[in-house]
Every structure is written in structure tokens, then in C-alpha cells.
Amino acid sequence: MVDNNKSEKNFEILFFKVYRNKYLNHKIYTHLSLFRRYRKIELNSDPIEILKYREYFSYIQEIKYNGSLELPLSRFSFPILKTIEIGRFSKTPPPENKSYFTSIDPTSVPNSVDTIIFPRDEDINYTCLRNFPDSIKTFKNVMFSKIIDYIPSGVTSLTFNSMNNYMCIKNGFLPPTLTFLDLGLACTFLGAFPQSLKTLKINRKISGAIQSNLSLSSLTDLTMSHVPELIELYPKTLKKLSIISKDHIDLNLNSLNGLNSLETLELDIDSLLIEVNSIPQSITILDIKTASIHNLYRDMLPISLKSLKINVCLYSFRIISLPVGLLELNCISSGLKDLDVGLLPESLTTLCLAKEKNIGFNKPIKDGYLPNSIKSLDFGEFNQQINYLPHSLVNLNFGKFFNKQIIPNSLPSNVEKIVFSSNFNQKLLLNSLPLKLVHLEFGNNFNNQVPVGVLPQSLKTLIFGNRFNQLFLPGSLPSSISKLIIGNKGPNTISCFNSPINENVLPQTLTHLEINCPRYSHPINESFLPRSLRIFIVSDNISFNE
Predict the structure, then answer these.
(1) Residue 22: what pLDDT?
(2) How many Cα atoms occupy the beta-carbon half-sphere of 77 within 13 Å?
(3) What is the pLDDT of residues 92-106, one digit of tens each?
(4) Record's superkingdom (predicted)?
């Protein structure tokens, strides 16, 4: 009989032996760094010239190719390659008025590849799917001219990108393994859907022939661009329905009453009418984006609702009542411009307020505005002095307009994560940060020195934005910190940080240090770096002294 506890202990001992071995540790982090760098590559010119450096081939999982020559896959080995994306078509003189895919030879595609993404090109009217290896399970942006002549039998995911108004899929052409199908703008007629189909997307008005084939017992996720007309023909097993249209559509949700298995409803339409009890009582996730809707009153939303995301392009829109069991609320509109006592249910754990100026909540918070159950709060437009917040809060995100000084002891003691907005640039006072804080992130405008004793000893992650340029005082960084980032990564990084890092500044618990500062001009003394450091990322311009 195997002793699992003893085996786990042996694995743990082995892991730490490897981890503490400097040579092996260096190798591990070298491979991780190479994988992060070369996992996805983009080729824009002669592939032979670019691919001749073979030392990183074993790290490539995705290739995006934009070249005009054929991608020479057969000349090289890509052991973990999964996805090939063609950024554009190369064309040969078209036989029978067809332009077809020639950027890669299907027979040269490695068996490790499972996804092929064709380009979106209106000049191409035919995509040949023949001769690809059986490992390919996903084809995206497939284009046919009227008649679909071949689809591999093992495909599980298929996305069309046809601009034609007429495309015929004959009975039996859709493989029995298919679980995901996006018809794009194609299809005025087609045969039966396979019984394996779980997700279907139709991006144009459908005919009665298609509607009559929608009653699949396997179908659980349906996306449509027009309002369904024959709701009784839809599968009773449907769990997610999305109606997304750029056309002018008025939808009365009473038409959905027969779908009693629906759990997720996504609506992105021009005008929406919600009446009392018109939304199925099985709905738990509701996502609404519309230009016209009445205020939300009592019993308009189902009591089963747990998550609500609402984006209304109407300044006068207001949320008057919410279900008592709601857990998450994301209001990207003026719906919560006024918070009344008792409006938000006591069950609410996550609240995100509108971020755009003049439409979101921006008034002093009083006792009773926010429920005591709330754990995560994203303030959006808010820019008021903090005097009261519920003690249940754990995550706090100040919106991009916030720039008020934090009064000592005004933040709840249970808060573990704080993210300040890009505008925030206030001095930190003693006892202004909660004692249980684990993650602290400043926006790009913050540029104030961090006094000794202000950061709590619980802090593990500390992030500064691009304009931070202050000298760290000995003892200002608590000994608990394991991750320190200065400046934002990216090709357009303009970090101002140029203060020397002196001795006894960096905590001995630090394992991850990033200095993304192209203008940093001080050599870093390696003896000042803690021995605990495992990940050290610096800009190319930074030098070291021993």
C-alpha cells in the first residue's frame, strides 16, 4: 500500500533540493523566461531568415504569419505548436474563379497543432480544408462560395466568415463531433445540425428552415442577431441566450417566458421593454446593453438573479429596485447616480459603479448606502472624502477621478487589496492603510515619498506607476514584501524613476523585483539585492556593480 503522506513529503524534499540548487534554479527560470518570450511569435517577412535561430523553437505554441511566401513548416520542428494564425492570404492565379489559401501547405502542419485561424479577407471566397492533419479540431474564419464541399470529420469548433448572402450546408456535411458553430453572416438555408452541437451563433436574420432545426437536445448556448419568432421551437435545455444586434430592434422580454432552463441572458439591442415577471425566473446572470429602457422597478428582475451588468445610454435611467438575492452588480450607466439607503440588497458582495464622468455616483457615502455584505468595491467616477465604508470590504478599487487624502483609520480594517486611480497623488499618513493590507497599487500620477511605518507589515505586493521618482528610505518597505514593481512594462514605458537603490532598503523577503525604467541611470550594487530574490526584471539600460 502506498503511503501518500510519505510520498508527498518526499516530493516536497526533492522540490526544495532542486529549488535551492543555484544551477538548476537558474535553468528553470531561464526556460520560464524563454517560454514567456517566445510562446507566441509573429512573422512579418521572410520566414526562413527569421526561423533560422532554432534555439527557441521548443517554446513556440502560437504562430501568427503575415508573410507572402509559404510558411516552411516542414523544414523545422515545433514540438508544442498548437495554433497557426494567418494574418493575410497569399494568392495564386485562381482556377474556376477561386482564390484559395496558399500561405501554408496543409500537409506540412505538425500533428501537435489543433487550431487554424484563417484571415478575414473579403477578396477570398474559398478556404480549402482538405489535407490538414486529423489533430486539427478548430477552424476559424472559414470561407465558402455557396456550396460547402468538405469539412474534416473530427472538427469540434467551426467559425464561418462568409460575406455571401447564400450558403448551403448539405445534410451530413457538418461532422457529428461538432460542438461549436458560428455561421457568421452566411446561411439562408442549411440542413440539420448535428446532435453533438452545444454552442450556436447566428449573426443574421434566420429563415423558418433554420428555426425548425434549432430544437436540439444538446444545444445549451445560442447567440442570435434578431429576435426569435418561434420560441416554442427552441430547445428546452438552453442555458444561455444572447441577442446581439446592430439593427434597430425592439424586444419585449415576455417572448422568453417559455425558456425555463435559461440561466444566462445577454441582450445588446436598441430598445428593450421589461415588464413585471417578464424575465424567466431561472435567470441567474443578466447582461443588458441598450439605448432605451424604462426604470427598473420592483419585480421587474427575477428573484433568482445573482449577477447583473447593465449599460444604458440614457442619462435619465434609474435603478429603483433590485432582487434581494443579488450578489454582483456592474452598473455602466447613470442607473446608480443616486444611492438611497436600502437600495442595494444585503446579499451584495461585488459592486462596480459607472466610470464615465457625470453619469456615475459621486456623493459622500453615508451609513446604509452600502450593505455590510459587500467585499469588492470599484468606485468608478467617485471623488469624495472617505468617512465611512462597510467593515466587510476586502478589495477596494478607486476610480480614475479619485484624488482625496486618506484619513487615518477611515478604511475598513479587513481590506486586503487597494488599487489607486491614475489621478491619485496624495501623501500617505500614518495609520491611513489597513493593517491586513496585502496588495497595494498606485496609478501613474503618484509621486510622494513613502514614510517609514506607513506601509503595514502585512503587505506582500507593492506596485508604483510611471511617474514615481522618490528615494526609498531604510525601513520604509516592510519586511513582509515579496513583490515590488516600479514602472509599467511595455514598449511605450516612460517611467520617471531615477532614484538610487541604497543598502538596507530592499526587504530580505523580496522574491520578485521589476524596475521598468528606461531612464534609470544609477548602477545597482548586487550586494544590495536580497538573497531571497528569484525573479529580477530590469530595463536594458540598467547596469550592475558587484
Answers:
(1) 63
(2) 4
(3) 444 444 444 457 788
(4) Eukaryota
Residues in the chain, overall count: 546
* Start-to-end Cα distance in the chain: 53
Q: Are the beta carbons of 483 and 461 closer than 8 angstroms?
A: yes
Q: How far is CA 393 from the centre of its chain?
A: 24
| Nearest residue to 471 via CA among 494, 489, 497 | 497
In terms of Cα–Cα distance, which of 440, 446, 456, 428 is closest to 497? 446
The one-letter amino acid code at 347 reads: S
Q: Would you state the pLDDT for residue 96? A: 47
- Beta-strand runs (E) in 24-89: 40-43, 62-65, 83-86
Joined together, the cell numbers standing for residue 411 give 478604511
pTM of the model as a whole: 0.79
Pairing of strands 544-545, 157-160: unpaired
The residue type of 482 is S
All cell numbers assigned to 376: 469588492
Q: DSSP label at 393? A: -
Q: How many CB atoms lie within 10 A of CB 29?
A: 13
Q: Give 350's pLDDT tier (boundaries 50, 70, 90).
A: very high
Return d(Cα 15, Cα 533) in angstroms, integer. Answer: 18
Q: What is the mean pLDDT of residues 4-22?
A: 61
CB 104 within 8 A of CB 70: yes
Q: Residue 108's closest CA among 90, 127, 81?
A: 81
Assess contact for 145 and 136: CB atoms under 8 A: no
